[in-house]
Amino acid sequence: MAENAPLWPHVGREAPAGGAHIHLGEPNLFFVTVNTQDRVPWMAQPAVQETLVRIWRVEATAWLVGYYLLMPDHLHFFCAPRDLHFGIDQWIKFWKSQFSRAHLNESWAFQRRSLHHRLRNQREYEDKLQYVRENPLRKGLAKGLDDWPFQGRAHDLCW
To answer: Which domains does the chain have, with CATH numbers?
Structure first.
């Protein structure tokens, strides 16, 4: 990657690129952002967090979710493939549908597409993790990194 190249290669696109390129023999950790439909702020609440974690641990196990953080209108998480038969877009579509079945509230809808980025090294992971953890502070929702209740780990992932 060129020194001044953006870390987000999808910047400037109308829609994010589909798929996730898996590189066998290399770390395959992805940073994902999922927005709510029309940025409606419904996501940061215990029922949502509990349902997502349950789905990721029990139903949608083709990919493993490590650290995650829910904001009112979007979600960030890190994930890695567990079953190469399921691409990232297919897996995200599946857990979104499972979530919708569990919560019939029509105002609780996700944006159709998500943004995902394969992390190339541990430094990039640490930079994204810091960015995500500081998100509630930047928005004035928490005073300290550990004060925001809508974060955690569904699975232990290592770089």
So the answer is: 29-153 (3.30.70.1290)
116 bridge partner residues: 32
Q: What percentage of the chain exceeds 70 in pLDDT?
A: 83
pLDDT tens sequence across 1-57: 344 433 333 334 344 345 666 655 666 899 999 999 999 999 999 999 999 999 999
Question: For 1-10, which contacts have Cβ atoms below 8 Å and span 24 or more sequence positions?
Answer: 1/120, 7/117, 7/124, 7/127, 8/117, 9/117, 10/115, 10/117
Q: Map residue 154 onto helix, strand or coil.
A: coil
The alpha-carbon radius of gyration of the chain (Å, integer) is: 15
CB 118 within 8 A of CB 35: no
Task: Answer whether 48's CB lies under 8 Å from 109's CB.
Answer: no
Query: Model's pTM, two decimal places?
Result: 0.84
Helix (H) and strand (E) counts for the chain? 3, 5
Residue in the structure block whose two tokens are 């998100």: 135
